[in-house]
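Q: Please design a sequence for this.
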């Protein structure tokens, strides 16, 4: 009887284990490609207080998602078809921007890259939790682009709205256009005192922040898409009304604070901001009811 010969073979390496670096390499390439536009976004955010408000809200919303779902979020490194499609579309938009000499295409590409990167990092379930943040980030990009275009029209609307309210209250205001065509100035005169309706008074930060709160609070709390879409115009009107109320209170209160105008201005502005955003958040937020634990599944994570 011949002795049995046992052949020792080396264990084969799993193709999946060998390719685990690929998702991280793709994400790294995306970071490198969109690094210039990231720097531009940071510079624009730092330069304008109205945009900083929106960015701060987005950061806080990210913290809320991470805190509420800390037990569910796990780093996956999953380069599935959806993630690959989103990243491919992002790179295609960058290529189209260079080919067509239309740099604005890089911004939607950045939004798709962020969505694809989150899909790779956290998988399909984790990405669902971050989708409202991706929508909020896309809105933030629009806000950055819209600021130079909407500054003067919003100042006119804010000053005109405040003047109309003062007329209703039987207080005769006067709106005066000053400055130059390149740099127009709007002056609101109330009871003999002049108030410059400056860029900081246009309500852009309050209006856009209210829209962001509606999208983020509604999305994170689980409201349906059509409800969130309906909340956005309500948020815009709420932000505009809060800004007009701020101008009214400041212009009517100024005579009572002759040596403390700046402090009064800041206090009233802060109260108007939080009142407007608080109302929008209250309207948009709908806490998700806890899922009842079935009798046969005592270990279900309600996270």
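A: Design:
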């Amino acid at each position: 009887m011949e002795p049995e010969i046992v052949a020792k073979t080396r264990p084969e390496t799993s193709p999946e284990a060998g390719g685990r670096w690929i998702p991280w390499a793709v994400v790294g390439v995306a970071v490198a490609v969109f690094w210039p536009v990231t720097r531009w976004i940071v510079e624009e955010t730092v330069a304008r207080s109205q945009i900083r408000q929106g960015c701060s809200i987005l950061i806080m919303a990210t913290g809320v998602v991470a805190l509420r779902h800390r037990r569910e979020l796990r780093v996956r490194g999953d380069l599935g078809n959806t993630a690959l499609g989103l990243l491919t579309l992002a790179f295609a938009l960058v290529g189209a921007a260079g080919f067509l000499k239309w740099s604005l295409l890089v911004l939607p590409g950045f939004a798709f890259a962020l969505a694809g990167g989150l899909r790779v990092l956290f998988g399909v379930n984790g990405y669902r939790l971050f989708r409202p943040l991706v929508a909020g980030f896309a809105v933030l990009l629009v806000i950055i682009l819209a600021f130079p275009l909407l500054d003067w029209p919003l100042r006119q609307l804010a000053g005109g709205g405040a003047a109309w309210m003062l007329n209703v209250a039987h207080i005769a205001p006067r709106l005066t256009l000053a400055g130059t065509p390149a740099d127009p100035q709007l002056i609101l005169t109330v009871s003999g005192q002049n108030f410059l309706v400056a860029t900081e008074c246009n309500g852009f930060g309050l209006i856009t922040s209210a829209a962001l709160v509606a999208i983020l609070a509604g999305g994170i709390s689980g409201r349906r898409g059509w409800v969130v879409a309906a909340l956005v115009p309500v948020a815009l009107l709420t932000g505009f009304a809060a800004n007009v109320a701020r101008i009214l209170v400041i212009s009517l209160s100024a005579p009572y604070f002759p040596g403390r105008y700046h402090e009064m201005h800041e206090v009233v502005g802060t109260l108007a901001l939080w009142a407007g955003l608080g109302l929008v958040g209250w309207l948009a937020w709908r806490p998700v009811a806890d899922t009842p634990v079935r009798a046969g599944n005592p270990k279900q994570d309600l996270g």
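Q: Thanks. Anything notable?
A: Residues 21-284 form one domain. The longest helix spans residues 106-168.
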